[in-house]
Amino acid sequence: MNGVFTLWSAPKRERSPEFSPLDLLLLTLSVREWQRWNGRAILYCDRWYADCLDRIGLLGLWDEVDSTTIEDASALDVDATTFWTAGRLLALADAAVPFVSLDCDLITWRGLAEDCLPGEIMVTHWESTEQSPWYPSPGELHRPVAYRFDARRDWSLRAANVSLAYFGSDAVRQAYVEEALRFMVGNPGRPRPELGVAPELLFAEQRLLPLIAGEHGVPVRALVNATWAPGQDRFIRHDQAPVWEPLRVTGQHAGITHAWFYKARLQQHDPRRLRLRGELARRLQANYPDVADILARQPVS
Question: Are 174 and 89 in contact (CB under 8 A)?
Answer without folding.
Answer: no
